[in-house]
Amino acid sequence: MIIRNVRILGAEPADIRVEGGAIAEIGPGLAGDDTIDGAGAVALPGLVDLHTHLREPGREDAETVQTGTQSAARGGYTAVHAMANTSPVADTAGVVEQVWRLGREFAHCDVHPVGAVTVGLEGRQLAELGAMADSAARVRVFSDDGKCVDDAVLMRRALEYVKAFDGVIAQHAQEPRLTSGAQMNEGVVSGRLGLTGWPAVAEEAIIARDCLLAAHVGSRLHVCHVSTAGSVEIIRWAKSKGWNVTAEVTPHHLLLTDDLVEDSPVGAYNPIYKVNPPLRTHADVEALRAALADGTIDIVATDHAPHPVEDKETEWSAAAMGMVGLETALSVVQEAMVETGLLDWAGVAQRMSVVPARIGRLAGQGQPIEVGAPANITLYDPSVRTKVDPSAFASKSRNTPYEGMTLPGRVVATFLRGRPTVLEGKLV
Ligand SMILES: [Zn+2]
Prior knowledge:
alpha/beta, binds zinc ion, single chain, 9-stranded mixed sheet, 5-stranded parallel sheet
């Protein structure tokens, strides 16, 4: 099969020949009959998400492995890491293997289960990290995401433990006693609205502590969804020391701010904007963009968090926290980072494919589009602008903050080891 007329990382148009799931030849005017017209789209290595909530097992009303990975494929992803806060929690070899098997059977992209750090995400006792690493799921990323491993002794032990198999602890950095009952970012807007604030220091204090712990034991730390300018400064400092710390930012933290809680196109107090960590200030957004551009923040991860309507369309204080993100991630990154001149397509490929695959220690994902590499390819047309229509999502949930917004770009096709999972924007 030949994918014709694509611009690899935005370069001059070329054709890609795919054979046996791998890239066999790249060049202009390749000979052959079995062709797909790339129509001048930008070709990126298949996107890799380090932070996806697939909700299965336990909350199949919100998402399943099947619908979540369909959503991923439509967003241009060829691999996702499935977070551990399912029901039951993915804290044993049995549960991670269950998720891994669901992926093998039903998924439209590769599914890599994340293992919980502590039993039941309760923060009291280390989960069976070694058994999960040795399981068929080959877990390398461990996280209590949704909750913070706030006990410093447990965090130290977890960091020490995963060194044996080159694992990484992905921390949801949030000091729980500083965020008890928090409803939104602590700042001018929360003060005006009288909502309990979520102080930046709750995130920053844990990141600083964890960087020090990771350095102390010589292990790998990954910081989930960095949301404040102060967090960026701490990570920049840790990296300047040569410590093994990586960090992610979500698309929504690159674009949206806390004043949307007070005033937005969908009214005030609309829980569509309720998310953990919360939307922050314009100054934070600027700092996050600059940090993603200069590499202080390594990657974009979606924190795709599907919730059914009844959990979101309720009063602000009772609403669930989180947003779906897989099907809009690339468009939001184009809007926030490419249109602003902060990143080119090679930079996007690094931050949404190459580096997340490296952090997750994935073989066969996040490789450059070159001869011999697996044919994991995303074709993206950055020239169109479209209105976000949640009813077209493959996700089971519709809790997107971008409904009705016009965003740039469209995923035209996604190929997983040469097999199309999306063609002309539609699931195959
Ligand atoms: Zn989280």
